[in-house]
């Protein structure tokens, strides 16, 4: 390695990312200094200058961003936590270092700045640092977007990230943060078009370029371009076989098209590739479990729940809630599991970061028969809805979030007519709670179950027929839809 030419050092930047950082661990100090210089220069050459005097901090920023894109803790680097700690040690005043570390905590939705003073302080610290330093306009916009997001103003935060992408279309951090925020708002078209707008500016040699296939394919899938979504995702997997987000898109396509056997074969055949992306692996297993529910293989779904759907990240936790709720609608008892899961969710009862989380926490408290926690969650959401300020999620709490919560409470108490009265008029607004079509399908299934059960009410019979026809049109040949139809017919004969 000591005899490599300078040109060869620079050519290695074509594999810009974690792979380069691994090499740094074995090179001598001279080579490390040379490549650190290249790291800083590489960002600058992309028009994405980082205002830090520490090349080590720039290297670690790059490593964190790469892990974020790959949905993976790289333990050879210390994972997210190790890299973030080392980054702040290398340059405590590095503004973009604070943007990425605090921003990642915010988009994880595991904590509320209303309640968590440490997190709120981290946001303030970033804003203060930006105010007393000569940083670039792009970096200043990043600080502004992060601050807006921390206040729950997701639409304006996305506007700022899009402003960044107009002048800096290869800014992956802006692209990913916007992608996540659109997902939380159920803004499907925006999520797709945000990536579509920047695609022409990315070249095959641009660092992390292959991962845009996964991002774009997911937006295509959520806007019902299923065949195109699968094609783009498979292109991504050809370039990067362990791209877990592209795998995730194909899993969704198979779910939405009710191609269950194809989905099972695909997930099993590529398991060793996507399993390494530990941040997303549990969610991909969740999709696998949905296929088993569709096929009435409930024990297989429960086995995945017990072994793979962990309750570590917030995504894992809401997946666990969703899976148990679906199984219970299918007649599977999950009482003990609900009690265990509620031990995780009860700590977040007062968070109210996003409505999607709130609704899933409510599933857990209802499943565990913890009526006090259920009432506390709903009452807290009602209070925030009275004066929501700029918080987009709290603005939606009154017209959407609270009525869905109330419908779930009524359903849990056996008041099915009241449940339908609350939930049926909102069925075209459920998208506003965020998440994916596959995740929100739980509420469609709930409505169908309730309407089908109310055999004595003509309007509910008609509603049930409408919902079943709609679901059958969206998912032709779905075994689950067929079962629901048969159940409804049996009750209304």
TrEMBL record:
Its keywords, alphabetically, are: Repeat, TPR repeat
Gene3D superfamilies for the chain: Tetratricopeptide repeat domain (1.25.40.10)
Q: Which InterPro entries match?
A: TPR-like_helical_dom_sf, TTC38
Family note? Belongs to the TTC38 family.
Q: Name it.
A: Tetratricopeptide repeat protein 38
């Amino acid at each position: 390695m000591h005899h490599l030419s300078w040109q060869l050092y620079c050519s290695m930047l074509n594999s810009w990312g974690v792979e380069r950082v691994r090499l740094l661990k074995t090179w001598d100090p001279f080579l490390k200094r040379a490549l650190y210089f290249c790291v800083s220069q590489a960002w600058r050459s992309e028009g994405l200058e980082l205002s830090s005097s520490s090349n080590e901090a720039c290297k670690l920023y790059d490593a964190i961003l790469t892990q974020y894109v790959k949905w993976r803790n790289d333990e050879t680097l210390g994972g997210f936590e190790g890299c973030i700690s080392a980054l702040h040690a290398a340059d405590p005043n590095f503004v973009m270092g604070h943007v990425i570390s605090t921003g990642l905590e915010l988009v994880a939705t595991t904590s509320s700045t209303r309640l968590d003073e440490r997190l709120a302080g981290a946001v303030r610290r970033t804003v203060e640092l930006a105010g007393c330093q000569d940083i670039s306009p792009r970096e200043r916009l990043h600080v502004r977007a992060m601050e807006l997001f921390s206040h729950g103003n997701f639409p304006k935060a996305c506007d700022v990230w899009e402003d960044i992408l107009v002048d800096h279309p290869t800014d992956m951090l802006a692209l990913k943060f916007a992608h996540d925020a659109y997902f939380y708002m159920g803004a499907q078209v925006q999520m797709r078009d945000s990536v579509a707008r920047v695609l022409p500016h990315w070249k095959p040699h641009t660092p992390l370029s292959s991962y845009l296939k996964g991002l774009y394919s997911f937006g295509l899938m959520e806007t019902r371009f299923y065949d195109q979504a699968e094609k783009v995702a498979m292109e991504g997997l050809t370039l990067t076989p362990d791209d877990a987000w592209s795998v995730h898109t194909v899993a969704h396509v198979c779910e939405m098209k009710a191609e269950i056997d194809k989905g099972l074969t695909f997930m099993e055949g590529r398991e060793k590739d996507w399993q390494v992306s530990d941040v997303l692996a549990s969610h991909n297993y969740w999709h696998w479990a949905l296929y088993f529910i569709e096929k009435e293989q409930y024990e297989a779904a429960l086995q995945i729940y017990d072994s793979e759907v962990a309750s570590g990240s917030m995504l894992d936790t809401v997946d666990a809630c969703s899976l148990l709720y679906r199984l219970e609608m299918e007649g599977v008892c999950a009482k003990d599991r609900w009690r265990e899961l509620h031990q995780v969710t009860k700590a977040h009862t007062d968070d109210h970061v996003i409505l999607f989380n709130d609704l899933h926490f409510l599933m857990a408290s209802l499943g565990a028969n913890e009526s006090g926690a259920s009432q506390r969650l709903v009452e807290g959401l009602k209070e925030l809805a009275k004066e929501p300020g700029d918080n987009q999620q709290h603005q939606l709490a009154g017209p959407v979030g609270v009525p869905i919560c109330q419908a779930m409470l009524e359903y849990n108490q056996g008041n099915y007519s009241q449940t339908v009265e609350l939930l049926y008029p909102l069925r075209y607004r459920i998208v506003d709670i965020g998440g994916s079509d596959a995740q929100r399908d739980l509420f469609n299934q709930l409505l169908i179950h309730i309407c089908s059960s109310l055999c004595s009410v003509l309007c509910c019979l008609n509603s049930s027929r409408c919902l079943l026809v709609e679901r059958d049109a969206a998912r032709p040949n779905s075994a689950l839809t067929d079962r629901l139809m048969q159940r409804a017919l049996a009750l209304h004969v």
